[in-house]
Structures
1.
Amino acid sequence: AIIPVNKTAHPFDKTRFEALLNRRFFYAPAFEIYGGVAGLYDYGPPGSSLQANIIAEWRKHFIVEEHMLEIDSTIMTPAPVFETSGHVARFADWMVKDDQTGDVLRADHLVKGVLEARLVGDKEARGLAAQPQKEDEKKRKKKVVKTAGVQLSDDAVKEYEVILAQLDNYSGPEIGELCRKYDIRNPDTGNKVTEPQHSTSCQHPETAQGHFLNFSRLLEFNNGRVPFASAQIGRSFRNEISPRAGLLRVREFTMAEIEHYVDPEDKRHERFDEVSDIVLDLLDRDVQASGSTQVKKISVGDAVATGIIANETLGYFVARIHQFLVKIGIDPARLRFRQHMANEMAHYATDCWDAEIQNSYGWTECVGCADRAAYDLTVHSKKTGHPLVVRQALKEPIVTERLVAELNKKVLGKTFGKDAGAIQKVFLELDEPRLLEIQRELAQGSAIVATPDGRKLSLTPEIVTIERKTFKQSIREFTPNVIEPSFGLGRILYVLLEHNFWAREQDIERGVLSLPPIIAPTKVLIVPLSAKEEFDPLVQEVSSKLRKAGIFARVDDSNTSIGKRYARNDELGTPFGVTLDFASIQNRTMTLRERDTTGQLIGDIDQVISVLVDLVNDSADWVEACRRLPAYDGVQAVD
Amino acid sequence: AIIPVNKTAHPFDKTRFEALLNRRFFYAPAFEIYGGVAGLYDYGPPGSSLQANIIAEWRKHFIVEEHMLEIDSTIMTPAPVFETSGHVARFADWMVKDDQTGDVLRADHLVKGVLEARLVGDKEARGLAAQPQKEDEKKRKKKVVKTAGVQLSDDAVKEYEVILAQLDNYSGPEIGELCRKYDIRNPDTGNKVTEPQHSTSCQHPETAQGHFLNFSRLLEFNNGRVPFASAQIGRSFRNEISPRAGLLRVREFTMAEIEHYVDPEDKRHERFDEVSDIVLDLLDRDVQASGSTQVKKISVGDAVATGIIANETLGYFVARIHQFLVKIGIDPARLRFRQHMANEMAHYATDCWDAEIQNSYGWTECVGCADRAAYDLTVHSKKTGHPLVVRQALKEPIVTERLVAELNKKVLGKTFGKDAGAIQKVFLELDEPRLLEIQRELAQGSAIVATPDGRKLSLTPEIVTIERKTFKQSIREFTPNVIEPSFGLGRILYVLLEHNFWAREQDIERGVLSLPPIIAPTKVLIVPLSAKEEFDPLVQEVSSKLRKAGIFARVDDSNTSIGKRYARNDELGTPFGVTLDFASIQNRTMTLRERDTTGQLIGDIDQVISVLVDLVNDSADWVEACRRLPAYDGVQAVD
């Protein structure tokens, strides 16, 4: 039953791959029967289970393993929160709507796209070679507007060029004026667009703000101690102008985000030793700056020790992300961590690494891992006046000494009357050297002090005494820093499917998804020879025993050959199958099939179930199974 | 260790209950540090875990047990879908916004509330007793607007009364006009409101449409067979005008919805026998119509047999909902199923039952279970032209006979030239008796047929023959009916917390949440005597063994007494606790505490863990645990 498998006999065939995902309803365009909406996808049963299993594994790997505090905050978010977080300035640009379809477009991108296209068309019409479009990442993401090949007047060309050069400076209403004046329409439909409006979306583009706003409660829940982390899995939304690349660029998606709060003066991580030997493919800032994309293979321990990764906690999470992705089935050879360039990173961030995974669209950012410093907690705290800080009892109080002036208010009032207050204020602002001088003068009998209006008053030791005093600070108050690993689950799911797709060597039409058992939508397929009633008791028994063992199985008693049913489940990524035939009824035996090798074993029903439990829970592999059960040679079949 | 517990020593105290939920961060107003937003709540760690556990149990109880097809469709939904589903007409009323805060208000409710309040104020000012406000359910849910006690002119009173009587007939712009003319403002803020707009929310008020739109794909996934069900857990949104009652009436909530597709001619359910003996508290239509709320205790089997519940499948799901709610900890004595009155139900629905749960706010609908007939699939199919039907091979083909006219087109054309087409059309519309007449006439030699313009033409047997033919229909095509159980998870979570809250007899301040182990946020609390390092190895060992057994445990090594740590976890609903003290280090023993009785047992660490596993997995109860482990008498304690 151990049959060598050649998974690379056929090169990756995207058309066949996408046909499989569509045929088996992993996901499909949302609102398909209404014509679909770009950038929105619905997950069918296998996609939905796959996502649920990835999330379950994520919960185990991060939340349970690290005792994180899971929260569930609302999607609807009032505008002031986004203004404070910086999202309005950064993301919520002026938007227009297609006045027929309601499609939302970013106003400045629309103007830019349309005017640039007209300029290109003008060049074509004038017989000049159109300038080759720059192929950098940013550009390719933007809408490519069809060029019309229409010649413009010389004045129009000049006006367009001026507008394009200054586009960043236009206000919303001014862009609206441009759209009217130059008849700028939605290039997808030819429809006019509405007045630009600030997109004050009530839907958040990340789940992070829900963590930060609940920081005080979470800290209290954690008995006031840091480090600790909050975690959340939730839906987020982005105004993608022209979504494409399937699940890699969508308008609505599920994220899993962690906010790990840490003492800014101590970013060590107590479990760093457990991961320090993990070797990663790192693409650091310096290598990128030199124009190269050559990764460095280096252990996390060394990367932190040599300062490539800024601190232990950040390194710890980078390594844990690596472990997680590989565990669920991402090919480690196609996984790298790319450091953000200084100008790419938010100004407040200390360091940021993206887990990028190679797929047919290129290298795609699937997880971000940033040290956001104290930015988020600080801005929300400033805006609301609500302190978002940790108050920590110091193990050893900090003892400081300084000179302190004490005024005898009674004598002061009697002597100076309404000037008493002014004198008190003056003393509040005196520095140490000046206090020392006054102390010395007082020792001589009296000291002269100037009031704010310039009068000089003489004070006696009876009125003021200056002494060195000891102060003890036993509480330290600080705003924690935040390390944020942030996972785009839809992207991970998509690249995972790509990495696990292959076709049988002997038949390119027979696609297989080699999903690891832990995340496969269905773990075991139960295949009775036919839907005849005589198989029912055994099907019930096996189903029920697997369910009790916590293994998700499905019965396929559809009216097709066993081979076709297995082929269908190879496409669904079901790792194991058991067949119940007439021999099963006679001898209580059952065959066990492995998806990738198609090898088959046979054994007593309970024996096979016990092997299955170990296979699914990853405590045995197929080699081990082959040791425990004899290979199936086909003679037991009765038909 | 079996100590009798009196959970009803103190009456339910809502203030203490809410303080507990807030103190332990089950949930809290969202955006609290920004002043909060009415109707939006964030779940903290225990609330979030509780919700996740309820969902996990729901998945097991419904999706896994019934082999449902889980999907995950988008929240964003284009307007045409809602127009077709009927949501725009039914839900998406004219809305206005507060022009400062942006709060959204339903325009007609605003006008009604403000004008009614002014009329009440007028009555007060005139010294007339204000009419007592009707206290029916509907009224109480609506905003109560502060009455001002200002007298109005007689004309104004008349105008207001006319407007109120006709309010349903005003269009959006007309309501806008009213707001301007009568200076109707947001009563919460005193701010003006914007022009009424149709609320074409892009966020769905239910997850159901995502199921229906994917029906064809789901049917194909299920090999073309019904019955089957799709299931989805997702976030939904409603424009609640004045949210209140905490989690019972919110703007954003998590739903779990099932759409079970069934043959309209056969609504039996194959597993109905498994539930038919379950006795439910039913409040049927007739009892309600008689003005009573006296429930009938009746088995589901009898309710279906006597026609109280419309069909087996609906009855099956009502019973399964009952099982689920009781399993997660709802008090069955405070659970009833109320049938919708005919005028309360959507016009297309056949029957509808709400699971209502009694709590401090009254009886609250927490689950709906409706037979929506073929409505949804039919409207989407009509609108899109995409057939949403089942095509079923008939076991026995339906054989029908009918008279069929066959025209010899060659002769027909030669004889009648351009009239040939008209004659063909005439024959398409002839009914059976007329065909029989013509057949008889032809047998006599020729038959007279009238053209649409009144000419009479004579046809011979050479041109037309009429014969009885046999037709065989082997495929039946039908639109399935939909049974829809729809769960409001936030409401269930809230009433569950109420039902499980009580205070210790000897101390009303010591609140307990007696959550069943299957849904408790944390199953086991591990309590080392102190945070001293000497306990670390044992804490690690116990944590790791419980984790391997799949049991979610938390360590509390905070710097307070063991008693206080247990009290905190009684409030969190943690059912079991284990204490590690110096005796544990010396003898490898551990004490096991049960939350409700506070009884304690002692045993070898591994023995205690094995008992714990059975307790948490519900395969042993505390009585059984007391049989397996000796009671802890306190002598083993070393301090």
2.
Amino acid sequence: MDAGRKDIDALIDLMAKLPGLGPRSARRAVLHLIKKRERLMSPLADAMKSVAENARECVKCGNIGTGTICDICASEKRATGEICIVEDVADLWAMERAAVFRGRYHVLGGTLSALDAIGPEELRIPLLISRVRDEGVTEIILALNATIDGQTTAHYIADELAGACTVTSLAQGVPIGGELDYLDDGTITAALNARKGF
Amino acid sequence: MDAGRKDIDALIDLMAKLPGLGPRSARRAVLHLIKKRERLMSPLADAMKSVAENARECVKCGNIGTGTICDICASEKRATGEICIVEDVADLWAMERAAVFRGRYHVLGGTLSALDAIGPEELRIPLLISRVRDEGVTEIILALNATIDGQTTAHYIADELAGACTVTSLAQGVPIGGELDYLDDGTITAALNARKGF
């Protein structure tokens, strides 16, 4: 009889390991799931099982999919000459939501970091360099986060690929809908330096 | 090939239905799960499946367990004469964490609410009245939330059980560690009215 509560406690402990959930919100989520066990909990368990069994990283770009090669790398509709470099799959998803880039991606899996002892070999940088050589890439678009580590990594990649192809990066400036009053000095400086004819 | 991304999207949609998670945090949680698919995602899916299949409400008190009768109702160590009335299973769990009450519980499953058309029949109030009659209950402890609906429900139950057994409720006052400066007027008023010899 006691097994029931143990199962529920085990589930709460696992849920509490998700980012954004602590012990308290995990308990709340589990109670919600138990109340909706047929409509929500069983489908969620099945979906999770299926993704856990099938999801894998694309051997070419590091995106997540179900095959050895991801949907984007396998698609014939995507331009092969342009590769957009992102830190993480979440960034790739953000780019795809904007639905403006029609080339392919390369997911680094992080940024260079001297503090955390993450060098080029720990990221997918060697793989990127061989892709640029082998796939006839003409342009690399750096879409790394505007953090110190992100920009260090961007400079490293630009140096490594100098001469092999065009290297560009996302423009920096005022975000759409952004109000100057709420922007940091760095963004305003970048936007002023990159000003263009109106 | 496209099925992979669809599975992941379906999982994100389901995760976003959990309380405290929106689309953005659901995406983040799913990416985290995919990264830790063997250590976290598979065990979580299994735990969820198991709870979804086995969890059920106790027919006596409404607590969640795996049998027809929950652990607490089945335990011979718990006093049968005292029943603590709570709104929700989460409140029962909170009482159990305090580990001070050794009687049994009755989970109402909500509060009376004229606005939402929730009357006594929608809650476990008729079941409570028959438990008090049949189980030789001597004291009912009202541990309902200190909200208007919670207190309305408490008064209704106290009226229904008047004469059948002693009805008490949790004391109201300054919480342990609470600072007067941060307390609302209602709590201070209640604490003053219920003042006791020092």
